Amino acid sequence: MRRATQLASIRLPEQQMSLKSGDIDRRTTLDARRHQIDQPLGLRRRVLGKVLAENPLRRRCPVAGQSTRTAGVPPGVPVSSRMADSAREIENLLYTYAERIDAGDLGGVADLFQHGRILPSPDAAHEVGFEGRDKVLGMYQAATRLYQDGTPKTRHMTTNAIVEANDDAGTGSARSYYTVFQSTDALALQPIICGHYHDTFQRIDGQWWFDTRTMFIDLVGDLSQHLLYELG
To answer: Which uninterrupted H or E stretch holds 178?
Structure first.
């Protein structure tokens, strides 16, 4: 309070000026500033908060770290949270596929397609695809070379995933790249095939599943240690 009193007694240069045009406004501003100094800090904060709360423009401005999409939304109300969760669940399916096939878990790969199908090429008709768990499992068993440790000694890298989810319709889609690395006693570590996937998804009883996976082959290397047949 002593400091506030001292500040209030200081005579500023503007106060010594004659009251010409505009001086009244400046003097009024100085008086208001002196009054703010004398006000308790808590009172000034309450007054400022009331002004901001009554300003509709201020309510629409995001605070630091807040997305412009969520500005003005009451705290605790998630915005598009369901859609974000669905996109993440779909993305996890992409990675789960790669994880299971690299582990040699062909049955686990087939489980992902209980309600879906795999098309071997983009121009393949749905009738020639592998639909359902049993057919998908048979496809991988006929194509994938497994080694003594039960794995194909590969690493499927899934990248550049672009996922779209329609939560209301319970459908989704994804486009992604894949690169397969392999290393065996007869093959030094190297990429053996690169391509991309076009996938669609469906939600059944609250869970996301592959609907259709279409495989595109872009670059081919040495597949002799990976496939049980020659790729045509």
So the answer is: strand 171-184
pLDDT of residue 39: 53
DSSP letters along 100-169, please?
Answer: HHHTT-HHHHHHTTTT-EEESSTT--GGGSEESHHHHHHHHHHHB---TTSS-SEEEEEEEEEEEEETTT
C-alpha closest to that of 101 among 136, 70, 51: 136
Residues lower than pLDDT 50 in the chain: 1-22, 24, 48, 51-52, 55-77, 79
Mean of the per-residue pLDDT values for the chain? 78
CA–CA distances in Å: residue 204 to residues 82, 89, 91, 132, 209: 15, 13, 16, 15, 7
What is the chain's length? 232
Sequence-separated contacts (24+) of 26-35 with Cβ below 8 Å: 34/7, 34/8
Question: Going by C-beta distance under 8 Å and a sequence separation of 6 or more, which residues neighbour residue 15?
Answer: 27, 30
Entry pTM: 0.65
